[in-house]
Amino acid sequence: MADGHEIAVVPGDGIGGEVTPAAVRVLEALDLPLSFVEADAGDHVLEAEGTPLPEATVETVRGADATLFGAAGETAADVILPLREAVGSFANVRPARTYPGVDAVAPETDLVFVRENTEGVYAGIEDEIADGVTTCTRVITEAASRRIAEFGFDYAAEHGYDVTVAHKSNVMRVTDGRFLESVRAVADERGADHEEALMDALAMHLVMRPEEYGVVICPNLAGDVLSDLAAGLVGGLGLLPSANVGRENGLFEPVHGSAPDIAGEGVANPTAAVLSAALMLDHLGHGDDADRVRAATEAVLDDGPRTPDLGGSATTEDVTAAIVEEL
Ligand code: GGG
Fold first, then answer.
1. How many angstroms separate the CA atoms of 312 and 129, rounded?
2. What element of type H or E holds 169?
3. Which of 65, 78, 224, 282 is catalytic?
4. Which of 13, 43, 122, 318 is catalytic?
5. What pLDDT digit, counting tens, does each position of 9-46 carry?
6. What is the pTM of this model?
7. Residue whose CA is closest, atom 6 of ligand 1?
């Protein structure tokens, strides 16, 4: 690995301001050649500066080797979507698995959502075309669909998962028809096995038989929704990390949002942010340290202090200190 990586830290809104410093603290405990540069974005920045995403923040993120992001609030579309674009990400990887000691609805869950990260209904093309009549244009291109399929099949092969592709091509015939055909073409070229599932039926099957699934390649919105559903299977959103990757740069963030209901109380679960930092370490070539962070986090989940979302009464600080202590 090349020595000396600069990490942009963008806590964002709500509990992002609590769990992101926790993740940085864990990274600092590793004594790696990482430097951190903080930048601001989000609802509170809109109030103060008139824009939720100042150009200086985008420049900091572009200039860094990787970014740790916290949470987006009401301005998510103007913050997290452009930041993902700024790092050239086209894949949002969201692992959802169970951990020893954590109560889970479905203990056999080990899923990885590979979510297309640039288009679909998150392309941002919305309009009010007449009084009371609104539209949202869903963009699905063959190029982006093939690109996410290539990424998903590579990821599944490397990590030993089966592949399911989620779609709704019986209703969105043109857009999801194109998505599905593109994934099929990639699978055919590689001779790779895959299953195809209508995304609504898949939502039910993921609840009833999650152990039958591995990597799920999804259009953008489906990936966002299905991964939250999977969070419910494994113990909640406090546990799910994510990696926005694609080209060289990457942005790493918990799957959860700003959680205004608990923001400021100091009780947010830092696990998702810490595990996102571990994904960042993998990305930067510090795989052994990433494994150390995961092992320490899992040890604390199994037998350490717990935040209220996991049935405990510990604070973010208590859990972070316990992870650092484990390290
Ligand atoms: N850290 C994830 C986050 O802030 N989520 C809020 C949100 O609305 N995200 C939309 C998305 O992930 O596309």
1. 49
2. none
3. 224
4. 122
5. 999 999 999 999 999 999 999 999 999 999 999 999 99
6. 0.96
7. 257
pLDDT tens digits for range 144-170: 999 999 999 999 999 999 999 999 999
| Residue 122 annotated as catalytic | yes
228 among known catalytic residues: yes
> Are 315 and 267 within 8 A, CB to CB?
yes
206 Cα–ligand 1 center, Å: 21
C-alpha 132/C-alpha 128 separation (Å) is 7
Name the one residue in this structure whose structure tokens are 């200086």.
56
Residue 2: per-residue pLDDT: 47
Task: Inform me whether the pLDDT recorded for 1 exceeds 60.
Answer: no
Six-digit token pair at 32?
């790696």
Q: What is the pLDDT of residue 66?
A: 98
Q: Which pLDDT does position 248 carry in this prediction?
A: 80
Please name the residue whose Cα sits nearest to atom 10 of ligand 1.
76
State percent of the chain over pLDDT 70.
99
Query: Residue 120 carries which DSSP code?
Result: B
**Ligand 1 environment, Cβ below 6 A:** 71-72, 76, 80, 224, 253-255, 257
224 is catalytic: yes
**Coil, strand, or helix at residue 309?**
helix
What residues are paired with 9 via a beta bridge? 38, 68
Over range 184-195, report the average pLDDT: 98
Q: What are phi and psi of 108, to 5 degrees?
A: -90, 15
Query: Which residue has its alpha carbon closest to ligand 1 atom 3?
Result: 257
User: Is position 127 annotated as part of the catalytic site?
Assistant: no
Which residue among the candidates 168, 176, 282, 309 is catalytic per the annotation? 168
